Amino acid sequence: MKTISLILVNYNTTKYLLRLLSFLIKKDYELIVIDNNSDEKLPIEYFKKNHILLIRLKKNYGYAKAINYGLKYAQGNLIGILNPDIALRDNEIEELAYHLEKNPDWGCIAPLFVNEKGEILPSARTFPKISHIFFGARSLLTKIFKNNPYSAQFLNWDKYEKKEPITVDAVIGTLILFKKAVLQTCGNFDENFFLFAEDLDICKRIWEKNWKVILFPKIKVTHYLGKARIKNLIKAEKERFKSFYYFFKKYSQFNFFLPFLFSFGAALLYFQLIFLNDTKEKIF
């Protein structure tokens, strides 16, 4: 049995998926690909030849549910979830696994993400408060007030220059390595999250079971900034607001104000996207 199982969810990112798999097949991983009913054709023989388990879903069930399909088959003691649009160049997974295994109180670990130019991307978050609705990475208010404390706190900008592993509320779901025993205790991903905030939710449940969530800034991974999302940015933003709305309903005490606050936040963002033509690629 392989020690590390890696689950990749594909939705119209086949070019990036195959490029990443060409690196991963050289390693000793169990590889599981869940295709969320992509429009693109997949080279079935490639998966068979390289002993990659491919599960093709009949519809796009969303990211969390696709991950749960993969978890049914994962045999490793460590389970990683990866976006296809990342680049691994060395032993990043092995380094993360080494540190995760030697610390019994760590539940999951993730690297620092950078873009193609090597610029640091948001890689961790605090658990959001109501004020954070308006201060995410894409927020108009974040762009206007670049050094405001709400955005800095939510996106953890002060922690990315560190080298040692650090505890954070939540890491970004672009690449996370979990202990299988932790996921078995905390439960599967919440399938009410279609595309966003499932990473916040699983990290919150990990903390609630008294394990730590770790960001390791010394280990850097390139992320190509949501190539699947950018094709329909407004639809993606709608899904993001729906997911965060559900997160606040699940955990917040201020449910009475949520419809108004999220409606106002969504209006600000749509104004920004449509009238200011703000479609620059971001991770959020």
From TrEMBL:
InterPro entries per record: Glyco_trans_2-like, Nucleotide-diphossugar_trans
One MF annotation (Gene Ontology) recorded for this entry: transferase activity
Any idea which UniProt keywords this protein has?
Membrane, Transferase, Transmembrane, Transmembrane helix
Which organism's genome codes for this protein?
Answer: candidate division WOR-3 bacterium
Q: Which SUPFAM superfamilies match?
A: Nucleotide-diphospho-sugar transferases (SSF53448)
Q: Does the keyword Oxidoreductase apply?
A: no
Name assigned to this protein: Glycosyltransferase family 2 protein
Q: What is the lineage of its organism?
A: Bacteria, Bacteria division WOR-3
Q: Which residues cross the membrane?
A: 256-276
All residue ranges annotated as the Glycosyltransferase 2-like domain in the record: 5-117
